[in-house]
Amino acid sequence: MTYVKAKVANPYKINLKINIRFLVDTGAYLSIVPADILNKLGVKSFTKRLFRLANGQHIIRQIGTVRFYVGKYLGESEVIFGYKKDEPILGVVALESLGLAVDPRTQTLKPIEMYLMVSLKTMETKF
User: Which band of pLDDT confidence, cut at 50, 70 and 90, is reported for residue 120?
Assistant: First the structure.
């Protein structure tokens, strides 16, 4: 397991940032940020989603958007409003928006090579 320190901010009010220690979970699609922190940042829920827990139980959680800062990397992602007992989790959607991935040998975050699939017709030919 890998942990990382990251700052989170409301994408519309980026002057206020809060530091959080996240468990990096490549098996988690969305990240979890404690609801009290999201409320302090003024992040609003724009929808609710149904999730299935490991025990098969279904729960509904609110979803919002935050800006993540990990070192020199930044990205924005949807997040789950976490409850008090939920551990903060950095999921794969946030990792991809940050341009980072977990190196399985070192258990650290490394920048990923980004690919852009475009038609050759759309590319400028001047170099």
Answer: low
